[in-house]
Amino acid sequence: MTETVTYQNWSQISGIFPILDETKGARSVLEWAYRSYPEEQIVYASSFGAEAIVLIDLIQQVKPDAHIVFLDTGLHFPETYEVIDKMEARFPILRIERKQPKISLDEQSAEYGSALWKRDPNQCCHIRKVIPLKETLTAKQAWISGLRREQSPTRANTEFLNKDEKFENIKICPLIHWTWDEVWSYIKERDLPYNTLHDHQYPSIGCFPCTQPVGDDGDSRAGRWTGSGKTECGLHTR
Ligand code: SF4
């Protein structure tokens, strides 16, 4: 077994994965990850967007009963819940967990005021996404994410293995070299379910109050928190 990369021994690791396979290294990375970490030590945190569909399909080829967590803020589009149901039906052995925040939307409104996402989206994301993921990642050595380098300037330097200072573990990103066109070619070739909002100019899909369709010339994440200056929910920032 390859020595497990941990937050503590991170300094020992260097670039170890080839990228010249048919999946641009993604399958090699996943095979390494599930070989290296015990199953209770690794989880894929999935948004169930287009990249997630590719990643789930690749993961189930390597680890059919992998643990996948969806951060269910209670504010997702119906189409997002539909695609989760479809993926569960397609891959029934996968363990897909819908992780909810400790406080309901009503409790959030009572404590912070209504529509917190309009006044303080960072606080809202912290309550409904960051804390639940932190709870999930407690005592886990690694998590998987579907980040791609071309998605945004803030993701351009992502590596296959990343030291995650926020969650104090290793973040594994198998799809860093994939383009948007390659994601869709894979989905079509494999005839995989996908969020139908992608057919209506929603390249990146989060909670409905914070996601808008974008024009053809917009970058893929331009529809997220439009006009607020916010570009990330906080899971991928220090
Ligand atoms: S994306 Fe918007 S609604 Fe969802 S948790 Fe973040 S601020 Fe709240």
What is the domain tally? 1
SSE string, helices as H and strands as E: HEHEHEHHHEEEH
Largest sheet: 6 strands, mixed
The low-pLDDT segments are none
Average pLDDT value?
90
User: How many distinct helices?
Assistant: 7
So, CATH architecture?
Answer: 3-Layer(aba) Sandwich
CATH topology: Rossmann fold
Function: Catalyzes the formation of sulfite from adenosine 5'-phosphosulfate (APS) using thioredoxin as an electron donor.
Keywords: Cytoplasm, Iron, Iron-sulfur, Metal-binding, Oxidoreductase
GO molecular function: 4 iron, 4 sulfur cluster binding; adenylyl-sulfate reductase (thioredoxin) activity; metal ion binding; phosphoadenylyl-sulfate reductase (thioredoxin) activity
Binding site for [4Fe-4S] cluster: 124-125, 207, 210
What does this protein look like?
There is one protein chain. By secondary structure, this protein is an alpha/beta fold. The chain has a single domain, classed as Rossmann fold. Helix content is 32%, strand content 11%. The chain has helices at residues 26-36, 50-62, 78-90, 105-112, 116-119, 121-137, 180-189; strands at residues 42-45, 67-71, 95-99, 142-144, 161-164, 169-172. Strands 3-2-1-4-6-5 form a 6-stranded mixed sheet, sandwiched between helices. Helix 2 links the parallel strand 1 and strand 2 (67-71). Helix 1 packs across helix 2 (50-62) and helix 2 packs across helix 7. The longest helix has 17 residues, at 121-137. It is globular, with a radius of gyration of 17 Å. 36% of the residues are buried. The mean pLDDT is 90. It binds iron/sulfur cluster. Iron/sulfur cluster (SF4) binds at residues 73, 75, 117, 121, 124-125, 128-129, 206-207, 209-210, 233.
